[in-house]
């Protein structure tokens, strides 16, 4: 039992450290690769494909795969499962490239380890028997809620970043097409000069078209992956232009202007909501101070009058 608890606690700590340091490690790896490419520009470089992979691919993924094989009886499988497909779509929108089964393994490990930690806390504090039973349940539910909230927050944040990038990116695509580039070449030009989640999705679209997928199917999949109304409108307009033989340059210019206007309208909408959102902190923090300043002297005088009587 002690060995099992130690293993689960170690896996929990490893998952927490990996989640916290994943972004830093990705940025550090990209910087190191860029510096290495610059320093070895004129030298022959022998690249080890296994060592060139990120830490997640070399260490974390094999561990998750082995744990998944051990927990295969309790982890839902089957690619035809509606929940599995919905989870796959959500993970893709959050920018997470692992499969739903691997995510389920991480979720089970985290929930189990959290429940065990809460149980150990209850044993250490010597609480009542009822609380010893409730603490693991509370810990498991807390871990489940935190993981679910974090995934939803990642989806929302990534969508906001893409919406923020869309006006500039589509303006660049429109200008590139007006300069004489084709649509695919314009996308490649944007990929080379921009960075972000929207560029990652355009990179996937560009690779799909280069591998033989039609422009119509690639753009439809782009709209589904991004799940943004402006993106679906843009891809639909480009597909319709290609189907009807309309000038792509005019369509791109019109769509770029429409997306920028839509972005401005959303910013104005958020700005108009600020006054309403500021009402709560004003009532909670500012009005009590004003009330004390106005009523304080009167209260002191009333106390003096009643004290003199």
Provide key terms for this protein.
about 85% helix; flat; about 0% strand; single chain; mainly alpha; about 300 residues
Task: Tell me what the structure shows.
The protein has 309 residues and is mainly α. It is 84% helix and 0% strand. It is built from eleven helices and no strands. It has helices at 2-39, 49-52, 55-70, 82-93, 100-125, 129-178, 183-193, 197-210, 215-226, 229-244, 248-308. Helix 6 packs across helix 11 and helix 7 runs antiparallel to helix 8. The radius of gyration is 28 Å and the shape is flat. It starts with a helix and ends with a helix.
Short description:
This protein has 309 residues and is mainly alpha-helical. It is built from eleven helices and no strands. Helix 6 (129-178) crosses helix 7 (183-193), helix 8 runs antiparallel to helix 9 (215-226) and helix 9 runs antiparallel to helix 10 (229-244).
Give the helix/strand layout.
Layout: H1 2-39, H2 49-52, H3 55-70, H4 82-93, H5 100-125, H6 129-178, H7 183-193, H8 197-210, H9 215-226, H10 229-244, H11 248-308
Helix pairs in contact: 1-5, 3-5, 5-6, 6-7, 6-11, 7-8, 8-9, 9-10, 10-11
Residue share in β-strands: under 5%
The beta-strand count equals 0
The averaged pLDDT comes out at 77
Q: Which class do the helix and strand fractions yield?
A: mainly alpha
Principal-axis shape equals flat
Counting DSSP H or I runs of 4 or more residues, the number of helices is 11
Straight-line N-to-C gap: 74 Å
Given as residue ranges, the uncertain stretches (5+ residues, pLDDT < 50) are 41-49
Radius of gyration: 28 Å
Main β sheet profile: none
Series of secondary-structure elements, N-terminal to C-terminal: HHHHHHHHHHH
Helix content: over 70%
């Amino acid at each position: 039992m002690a060995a099992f608890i130690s293993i689960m606690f170690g896996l929990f700590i490893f998952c927490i450290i990996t989640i916290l340091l994943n972004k830093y490690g990705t940025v550090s790896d990209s910087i190191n690769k860029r510096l290495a490419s610059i320093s070895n520009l004129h030298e022959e470089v022998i690249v080890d494909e296994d060592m060139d992979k990120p830490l997640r691919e070399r260490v974390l993924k094999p561990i998750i795969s082995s744990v998944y094989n051990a927990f295969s009886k309790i982890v839902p499988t089957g690619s035809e499962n509606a929940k599995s497909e919905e989870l796959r779509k959500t993970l893709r929108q959050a920018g997470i490239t692992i499969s739903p089964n691997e995510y389920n393994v991480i979720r089970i490990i985290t929930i189990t380890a959290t429940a065990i930690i809460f149980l150990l806390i209850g044993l250490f504090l010597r609480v009542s028997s009822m609380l010893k039973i409730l603490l693991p349940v509370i810990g498991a539910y807390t871990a489940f809620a935190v993981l679910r909230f974090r995934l939803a927050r990642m989806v929302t944040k990534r969508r906001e970043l893409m919406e923020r990038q869309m006006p500039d990116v589509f303006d660049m695509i429109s200008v590139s097409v007006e300069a004489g580039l084709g649509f695919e070449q314009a996308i490649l030009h944007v990929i080379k000069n921009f960075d972000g989640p929207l560029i990652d999705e355009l990179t996937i679209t560009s690779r799909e078209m280069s591998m033989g997928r039609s422009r119509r199917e690639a753009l439809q999949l782009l709209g589904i992956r991004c799940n943004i109304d402006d993106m679906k409108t843009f891809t639909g307009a480009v597909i319709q232009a290609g189907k009807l033989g309309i000038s792509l340059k005019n369509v791109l210019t019109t769509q770029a202007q429409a997306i920028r206007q839509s972005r401005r309208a959303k910013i104005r909408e958020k700005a108009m909501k600020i006054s309403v959102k500021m009402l709560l902190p004003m009532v909670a923090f500012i009005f009590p101070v004003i009330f004390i300043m106005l009523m304080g002297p009167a209260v002191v005088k009333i106390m003096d009058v009643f004290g003199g009587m």
